[in-house]
């Protein structure tokens, strides 16, 4: 009698230890949510203001801006003439909700003065940023001193600016006293340090030699 009970208890233990694979339900497979489903069917919108001096360039480059946003990123885009804003919104076939913010950054970069070709990199790559600062953030300059500082940043025929752009793999826009930079985090830091040195009065030759050393170090890391 005791042996029978022992056998049945062993059978129960074995059955619990090795359950029948047919009785285990298969893992549920959930398809990724679409952009309009994440926000419970609500359409997400971004509005980018158009400054007066970028209105004409926007008209000329409208199709270059419209095509990648609408065809490749699957985001609706229109120009609100009354509000002077570029309006972007998600649609049912938008594959990723982050596309909306990428497109807003792309349009914003164009409004800051970057070329469409350069700004397009924001749609293709995730690790690119736009950073802005003013000359007065580095040093308070007025009158001719400010004009000379802006001249030092550009150099003759823009050579200094191009040299910094090429060595740091960034794009720089100097708009009066505001400076905008487009690139990766590490590259923007190097470009910003060079520009700050020029604002503080360092000669271009000294900045070039420092740039060569830093860009060689960056190339070794990558």
What labels would you give this structure?
53% helix; three-stranded antiparallel beta sheet; 12 helices; alpha+beta; 222 residues
What fraction strand?
15-25%
Biggest beta sheet summary: 3 strands, antiparallel
Gyration radius, in Å: 29 Å
Shape: globular
What structural class do the secondary elements suggest?
alpha+beta
Strand order within the widest beta sheet: 1-3-2
Amino- and carboxy-terminal Cα gap: 76 Å
Estimated helix fraction = 40-55%
Oligomerization status of the protein chains: single chain
β-strand number: 6
Describe the protein's topology:
Blueprint: H1 2-17, H2 35-38, E1 45-49, H3 55-60, H4 62-72, E2 75-80, E3 85-90, H5 98-112, H6 116-119, H7 121-124, E4 128-134, H8 135-138, H9 144-154, H10 159-168, E5 171-175, E6 178-184, H11 185-199, H12 204-221
Antiparallel strand pairs: 1-3, 2-3, 4-6, 5-6
Q: Could you characterize what this model shows?
A:
The chain is an alpha+beta fold. The protein is built from twelve helices and six strands. The protein has helices at 2-17, 35-38, 55-60, 62-72, 98-112, 116-119, 121-124, 135-138, 144-154, 159-168, 185-199, 204-221; strands at 45-49, 75-80, 85-90, 128-134, 171-175, 178-184. A hairpin with a 4-residue loop joins strand 2 and strand 3 (85-90). The longest helix is centred in the C-terminal third of the chain and has 18 residues, at 204-221. It is globular. The model has no long low-confidence stretch (mean pLDDT 84).
